[in-house]
Amino acid sequence: EKAVAYSRPLTVIVVISFALSAEGLNLLGFGYTIWILCLMLSGINRSFNVAGWDVLRGHTTVWRALLAYSNLIVVSLFCWQVFGRRNEDLYGLERTSWSLWQTTWPHLLVSVLSAFQARALQAKILQPIALVVSTSPLAWLLWATGMFIQMSLMFMVVMLPPKSLDSFIFLLLFICVVAIEQIRGQSRWRLRLLSATGTVAAILLPIRYAILIPRVQLWLQGVLPQDVDPYEILWDKFALREDVR
């Protein structure tokens, strides 16, 4: 039970590490960000009796989708190494003079970890007691530090550049959460605001990721020239420039 539960964050970290790396700014990495969004939405909808405190548990279908997607990437990279004639940066298909292991190992690792999770969920392996019982040390730690960590991250998004529409959205959520905590901490709106914050962050991740793809940057510069006055404010307020990453 503990191996299954505690390997889930490892899998998500591997996925995020590849997606947000310089090599991952392509449609392959964008697919991983879409999967993270699906995992968050699936985890929020899981009942406490099944998932406990673990929002990463998600549904079996979500983990099977990651398994199928990572395997498809490995097969595509292998076939492109054999039959491809040039690199396709938009799709993340690259031919390398080095070992194929260099480009496929992150996806192979994700495949193994996701297969482990999908099999465990199919076998209906229960959550560890620490993730279900509200009096466990882990539950106390999440209760004591979880809100502080979340508010700190929201404050960083608001205060650190670039100042954009994203910052304004998180500022509104930040003010609402603080107000609820001060007025009525046990209100149902507290849970709703926390869920809204997680959902907004998960939705903004693939949107921001898509904007930073080099081919998308070229398209935006053609449609909305940033040197022209009417469009310059859009580039600033929506943080569309590639250098914002």
Write up this protein:
It is a single chain. By secondary structure, this protein is an all-alpha fold. Helix content is about 70%, strand content about 0%. It contains 10 helices and no strands. The chain has helices at about 1-20, 25-45, 50, 60-85, 100-120, 135-160, 165-185, 190-210, 215-225, 230-235. Helix 2 runs antiparallel to helix 8. The protein starts with a helix and ends in an 8-residue tail after the last helix. The mean pLDDT is about 80.
Compile the SSE list and pairings.
Layout: H1 2-19, H2 27-44, H3 48-51, H4 60-83, H5 101-122, H6 137-159, H7 165-183, H8 188-212, H9 214-223, H10 229-237
Helix pairs in contact: 1-2, 1-5, 2-4, 2-8, 4-5, 6-7, 7-8
Q: What would you say about this model in short?
A:
The protein has 245 residues and is mostly helical. The chain has helices at 2-19, 27-44, 48-51, 60-83, 101-122, 137-159, 165-183, 188-212, 214-223, 229-237. The mean pLDDT is 81.
Strand tally, please? 0
Strand content: under 5%
Q: Report the structural category.
A: mainly alpha
Percent helix:
over 70%
- Which parts are unreliable, with pLDDT below 50 for 5 consecutive residues or more? none
Characteristic terms for this protein:
245 residues, mainly alpha, flat, single chain
